[in-house]
Amino acid sequence: MTPNRILLYSVSLAALLAAAPAVRAADTTTVGEVIITADKAGLLERRLTTTVFGLRKALIDTPRAASLVSDTTIQRYGIQTVNDLVAISPSSYTASFYGVPGSLDVRGTLADNYFLGFKLIENRGTYTTPIGDASQIDVVRGPPSPIYGPGKVGGFLNFVPKSIKSESLTHPVGEIDVTGGSYGKKVIDGQVGAPLTLGTATGGFFAYGEDEDSDSFYEGVHPKHQLGELSVDFDLPGGWSTSFDGLYFHSTGDVQTPGWNRLTQALIDNGTYITGHNTTLVASPGAGYLTPNQATLTEFSSYPFNFTTVGGGLYAVYGVPPSALPPQFVLNSPGAGTTVQLSPRNIGVGPDDFSKTSMPALVLGISKNLPGDGALKLQLFYNGLDNQRFVSYGFPAWFRTNTFEARATYDFKLTGFDGNLLADTIAGVSYRDYQGRDMQSFNSGLIAVDRRDYSVGATPTDTLCDPFAAGVFGDQFPTNCLGWEEDIHSREGDGGIFATTDIEIGRRWDIILGARNDDYHVSSKDTGILPFETPLPQSASKDNASYTASVSYKLGWGLMPYLTYARGGALEVQQAGDLKPQDIQTGAWISQSDLAEGGVKFQLLNHTLVGSIDIYEQHRTEPAGLTDVSQRTESIGEELEVRWLATKNLSFTLSGDTQHTEVIGPDKETAYIPASAVCGANTACDLSVWGGAYLVFNFDSLPGRAGNYALTTIPNTVVSLYANYITDAHSWGKLGVTAGATYVSQTSQTIENGLVYPAYTLVNLSGFYKRGPYEVDLNIDNLFDKFYVTPNSDPIYINVTAIPGVGREWRLTLKRTF
Question: Is this prediction's pTM over 0.85?
Answer without folding.
Answer: yes
